[in-house]
């Protein structure tokens, strides 16, 4: 966290965190794809993307500052991930828009200022951004659940290897061989992406151990997490808090390889 020179209502911003908003990497809470995530913030889906700088002003008000200097934000995030201190201070000329509120949950607060709160609205202001309601299952929660599986792949994969499912408070999984109409429809939609490419960011590919790739795909009412050398997990809007495993079988490998070829990747 560092005090920056970014001007927000004529006040400096105390930076708490930052995230990227690019075709290959964007907060899933904002949408199924990159254009949808940009639309949620009211910005044009710029090819190079944006950085989101999240913090508080001197009165403690929550602000999200959208900047077009993606490398600057990416370097700061990389340093923080390595446990290194790094002062993120975008210049005012890189600021695209400053939005009230936070689109994501932030567990820390700036010292020496009032508790985090939304700024007092003025005439013509847009409603403050807010994180998804974790008490209600919906598209944002479904996508966040898929993010969790991608981050903890080994944990979820081990449950299948052990032949049993250990429920969690947020998401649980039914037996691997469960038949499901919604699951078949989600897989059919994923196959149709190969014939008619979806909006950019609907299918993303990142590094996985052993030369494999981790795939994240989303569509109307569904999300998928898969490894190109392994199986897949699906989450559906119509099945709150459940994870549907799909074994590798004979069809899944070709689908995953084809999706990986069309997926966007971090630069």
Short descriptors:
267 residues; alpha+beta; 5-stranded antiparallel beta sheet; 24% helix; elongated; disordered N terminus; Integral membrane protein
Overview of this structure, please?
The chain has about 270 residues and is α+β, with helices and mostly antiparallel strands. It has two domains: about 100 residues, no CATH class; about 120 residues, no CATH class. The protein has six helices and ten strands, in the order E-E-H-E-E-H-E-H-H-H-E-E-E-E-E-H. A five-stranded antiparallel β-sheet has the order 1-2-3-4-5. The longest helix is centred in the middle third of the chain and has 13 residues. It is elongated. About 35% of the residues are buried.
Question: What is the tally of helical segments?
Answer: 6
Q: How many strand elements?
A: 10
Largest sheet: 5 strands, antiparallel
How large is the share of residues in beta strands?
15-25%
Q: How helix-rich are the residues, as a percent range?
A: 10-25%
Overall mean confidence score, pLDDT: 88
Count of spatially separate domains: 2
Order of helices and strands: EEHEEHEHHHEEEEEH
Strand order of the largest sheet: 1-2-3-4-5
> Which class do the helix and strand fractions yield?
alpha+beta
What is the 3D shape?
elongated
| Quaternary structure classification | single chain
Task: Evaluate the radius of gyration.
Answer: 20 Å
Distance between the termini: 26 Å
User: Which residue ranges are poorly predicted, with pLDDT under 50 across at least 5 consecutive positions?
Assistant: 1-5, 164-172, 174-178
């Amino acid at each position: 966290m560092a005090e920056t020179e970014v001007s927000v209502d004529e006040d400096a911003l105390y930076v708490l965190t930052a995230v990227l908003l690019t075709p290959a990497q964007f907060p899933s809470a904002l949408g199924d794809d990159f254009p949808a995530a940009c639309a949620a913030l009211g910005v044009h889906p710029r090819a190079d993307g944006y950085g989101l700088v999240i913090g508080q002003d001197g009165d403690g008000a929550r602000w999200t500052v959208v900047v077009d200097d993606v490398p600057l934000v990416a370097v700061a995030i990389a340093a923080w991930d390595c446990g290194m201190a790094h002062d993120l201070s975008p210049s005012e000329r890189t600021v695209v828009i400053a939005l009230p509120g936070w689109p994501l949950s932030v567990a820390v607060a700036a010292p020496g200022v009032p508790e985090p709160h939304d700024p007092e609205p003025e005439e013509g202001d847009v409603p403050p951004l807010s994180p998804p309601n974790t008490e209600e299952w919906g598209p944002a929660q479904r996508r966040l659940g898929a993010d969790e599986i991608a981050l903890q792949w080994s944990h979820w994969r081990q449950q299948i290897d052990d032949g049993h499912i250990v429920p969690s408070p947020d998401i649980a999984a039914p037996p691997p061989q469960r038949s499901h109409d919604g699951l078949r429809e989600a897989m059919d939609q994923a196959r149709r992406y190969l014939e008619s490419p979806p909006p950019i960011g609907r299918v993303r590919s990142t590094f996985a151990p052993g030369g494999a790739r981790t795939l994240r795909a989303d569509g109307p009412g569904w999300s998928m997490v898969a490894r190109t050398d392994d199986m897949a997990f699906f989450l559906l809007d119509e099945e709150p808090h459940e994870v549907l495993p799909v074994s590798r079988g004979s069809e899944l490998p070709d689908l995953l390889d084809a999706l990986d070829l069309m997926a966007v990747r971090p630069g």
